[in-house]
Design brief:
With about 425 residues, this protein is of the alpha/beta class. Strands 1, 2, 5, 6, 11, 12, 14 and 15 form an eight-stranded antiparallel sheet that branches. It has a seven-stranded parallel sheet with strand order 16-17-18-19-20-21-22. The chain has helices at about 140-150, 160-170, 175-180, 225-235, 255-270, 285-295, 310-315, 320-335, 355-365, 380-385, 395-405, and strands spanning about 5, 15-20, 20-25, 30, 35-40, 45-50, 55-60, 65, 70, 75-80, 80-85, 90, 95, 115-120, 120-130, 185-190, 240-245, 275-280, 300-305, 340-345, 370-375, 410-415.
């Protein structure tokens, strides 16, 4: 067993001498066994959950203990839970087990994961669902990006989208934006200032009473010319090129569907190379068909749940309904589009029996090729206080992956967008 770790008021982390690590599946605490643990991956981050005492397991008393304070020498310190944030490609299986009663704020948007300590090594509850060298953090050092930005800047003196993505790369450290300047892999094409959903975990817009948004949203609508100028250059010259509409620094791209349609037509009039992808909530099936016809290659539809009630509670759609999303997936199937869902994983919700049944039903009705297992970045207590997950039992995230593979062998499970054209996918 791994030991419980906790932090003091200053964020200094301590290893408890005998309490064992406990994880949470939704609000259910579970003792974590070795089979659920991996070494904390390189490039992970540790956070402490202020005013949230950790819950550990006392092997002597054989019960769960809420650790509110701990004496170190002559000091009696207040104890706060510690959570890990793993790098891209890793999926969490348990949340930090914590007492949230005294928390009077909303945690920043990270995917908090249960983490402990064993034999001098941090251990975390998760597994690697996909390794992709192109998204390894080691490839995104700021020192290699700045010279490329400065080299390219004179080539785009009037392009506002270039300026926006320069800020994304250098100040927000967006990997996709960095790819644009490094002339490789997947690059972003943000376009939309507005959104037709009010997702609880939106990283570009949060209400004043919520937590701070991770970064700002694009403040202008680029022109077809600005979009095509960057996209054509990337698709023509980059390594394994993808350009994607639908980014964290914008709203819902389908609200600018005509701009996307016209931009794709312009791009494809100049190059047939590479993959044009759309990351979307799939809310507007009829306009989506126009985009597909214009030359779209792949699509990724985000879903926090495939159950309508939980979907609505998280995404909070405006002027569209859950059935519109399903219809969009059917349209993608009927038009032979490479179709993916961006499945936002949350232990104790995603792995419920009822959720799995709904997912199987969706896979049978559509021709989804790829399921992205992406950790949902949100305050666990906040999220669970809003959704109604019901009493359906949780099977475990690893079990869900196994069941999908056993029943739908042609569906890929991973973490990253794939280049479709020129790569035989």
């Amino acid at each position: 067993m791994a030991n419980l770790i906790f932090a003091d008021d200053n964020g200094v982390i301590y290893n408890h001498p005998y309490l064992e690590l406990v994880g949470a599946s939704a609000r259910e605490n579970r003792l974590i066994h070795q089979k659920h643990l991996i070494d904390l991956p390189e490039f992970s981050k540790l956070f402490y959950l202020f005013k949230c005492p950790p819950i550990g397991y006392d092997p002597h008393k054989k019960k769960y203990i809420t650790l509110k304070s701990f004496r170190i020498g002559k000091r009696l310190i207040k104890c706060h839970s510690v959570g890990a944030f793993m790098p891209p490609g890793f999926v969490r299986t348990f949340l930090p087990a914590a007492d949230y009663k005294d928390k009077d704020y909303i945690l920043p948007m990270w995917s908090y994961t249960a983490v402990g300590f064993e034999n001098g090594i941090y251990k975390v509850c998760g597994f690697q669902v996909e390794y992709n060298n192109t998204w390894d953090p080691i490839n995104y050092d700021d020192d290699i990006v700045l010279p490329q930005v400065e080299r390219l800047r004179p080539l785009y003196p009037q392009n506002r989208l270039f300026e926006h993505l320069e800020n994304c790369a250098l100040n927000n450290h967006c990997f996709a934006a960095k790819n644009l300047f490094l002339n490789r892999w997947e690059a972003p094409l943000p376009i939309s200032r507005s959104c037709n959903a009010r997702c609880l975990g939106c990283i570009s817009l949060q209400p004043e009473q919520g937590c701070e948004a991770s970064h700002g949203r694009i403040e202008f609508t680029p022109t077809v010319e600005e979009i095509a100028q960057l996209a054509v250059s990337h698709l023509e010259t980059a390594i394994a090129p993808i350009v994607s509409f639908g980014q964290g620094c914008e709203g819902e791209p389908l609200t600018e569907w005509a701009l996307i349609r016209d931009s794709i037509k312009e791009i494809r009039s100049k190059t047939k190379k590479g993959t044009i992808n759309l990351n979307t909530n799939g809310s507007m099936p009829v306009p989506l068909l126009q985009i597909i016809i214009s030359g779209l290659d792949s699509i990724r539809v985000s879903m926090a749940s495939v159950r309508e009630d939980i979907y609505n509670a998280y995404h909070r759609p405006v002027n569209y309904v859950f059935k519109d999303v399903i219809e969009s997936l059917r349209i993608c199937r009927d038009n032979g589009l490479y179709t993916m869902i961006n499945y936002l994983i949350f232990p104790g919700v995603t792995d419920q029996e009822e959720e799995l049944e709904s997912l199987f039903n969706l896979l049978q009705k559509t021709d989804i090729k790829f399921i992205h297992f992406k950790n949902l970045n949100i305050d666990p207590d906040f999220y669970l206080g809003i959704i109604k997950r019901g009493n359906s039992p949780s099977l475990g995230i690893e079990k869900i992956v196994k069941e999908i593979k056993n029943n739908f062998s042609d569906v890929r499970i991973g973490y990253f967008n794939q280049p479709i054209k020129d790569h035989g996918i």
